[in-house]
Structures are given as structure tokens and as C-alpha cells.
């Protein structure tokens, strides 16, 4: 009973936190404190923080650096890139059944940008719901594999933060086969 109350309180706290983030985004009150950060280190930090969740669901969570470089520097606010990664990865874990996989990969494209992909073998997103996923106030009801639910604001927040940093976010998904949420950011290369 105590555990159930604790879980309920955590869900409510996350929802309230998301509402405050949305209000700040809409008012333009999110101030960016850009720093040069190593994208690979940010991804490792996020994945390491979610390993236990993946292990509990028996999901293979891995990172693939497909850039050919050890270090990729981006101009971003570290907590915000972690927030984006955590949201996309935790969503992938939520909608992937036990025995599935979630892969976080990143690759440099020809336009001096880096693409970060969160690819899962989960339930996928029906075509009819894809356009609504990134919109505020449009909670899309896709039940997680063990009954998890979210606030419906996470992807809107991710989209807003990515765009505030000069990037873009997109989705490729097939119902019953999984999803690939990706975001593209400007790259700041160092020698």
C-alpha cells in the first residue's frame, strides 16, 4: 500500500513538473545556458541512469557511436540534453516489451549536424496518432507494455527544447514493430 502511494505521488509530481516546464516554455522563460558538451558522455550519463529500468523489464539497452569519432562537441545545456534523452529513452523502455531492445545511436551527417536516434522494438505508434505526439494538450493514449502511462507533455517539451537549441525532432514508426525517435542538432567540432 505504501509503495502504491509513493508511486502515485511520483506520477503526480512528474505531471506538475511538466506543467511548469510547459508554462515556462510558452512564456519564453526558459533561458539557455549553452555549454560545449561531449554528446557521447551525455548519452552515456542518460543511459546509465536508466539501466536499472531496462534491466527490470529485461530490455537490452545499448549505445552505438556511428560517428567514427571519439568525441563530438555540441553547444547545448547539459541538463536539458539529459532531459530530452531521458524522456525519449524512458518512453522507448515504457513501450517495449520484455526481451526487446532499445538502441541509442548517434551519427554525424554531411551538414555539420549530428542525429541522435532512440530506436526501440516496442509497440510502435499508429499512423493516426503520429501528428499529435509532439503537440501540447493532446495526450495520446498508447498504454505501456506493463500499464505505464505518462503525462502527455514529455514529447512536447522535448520538441520545444530541441527547437530552442536550433535543432529538429522527428518520428519514424510502424505499429507492432517499434519506433525511431530522432533529433538533429548543430555540431560544434573541435580539432
Helix content: 25-40%
Mind telling me which CATH architecture this is?
A: 2-Layer Sandwich
H-E string: HEHEEHEEHHEE
- What is the CATH C level class, in words? Alpha Beta
Overall mean pLDDT score? 83
Provide the number of structural domains. Answer: 1
- How many runs of DSSP E, i.e. beta strands? 7
Sheet with the most strands? 5 strands, mixed
Q: Overall 3D geometry? A: globular
Question: If you had to describe this structure to a student in words, what would you say it looks like?
Answer:
- The structure is a single chain.
- With 191 residues, this protein is an alpha+beta fold.
- Helix content is 39%, strand content 25%.
- It has a single domain, classed as 2-Layer Sandwich (Heat Shock Protein 90).
- The strands form two sheets. Strands 2-4-5-7-6 form a five-stranded mixed sheet. Strands 1-3 form a two-stranded antiparallel sheet.
- Helix 1 (2-26) packs parallel to helix 5 (154-164) and helix 2 runs parallel beside helix 3.
- The longest helix is centred in the first third of the chain and has 25 residues, at 2-26.
Question: In terms of topology, how is this protein built?
Answer:
Blueprint lengths: L1 H25 L8 E4 H18 L3 E6 L7 E4 L1 H17 L6 E9 L3 E8 L6 H4 L23 H11 L3 E7 L3 E9 L5
Parallel strand pairs: 2-4
Antiparallel strand pairs: 1-3, 4-5, 5-7, 6-7
Helix pairs in contact: 1-5, 2-3, 3-5
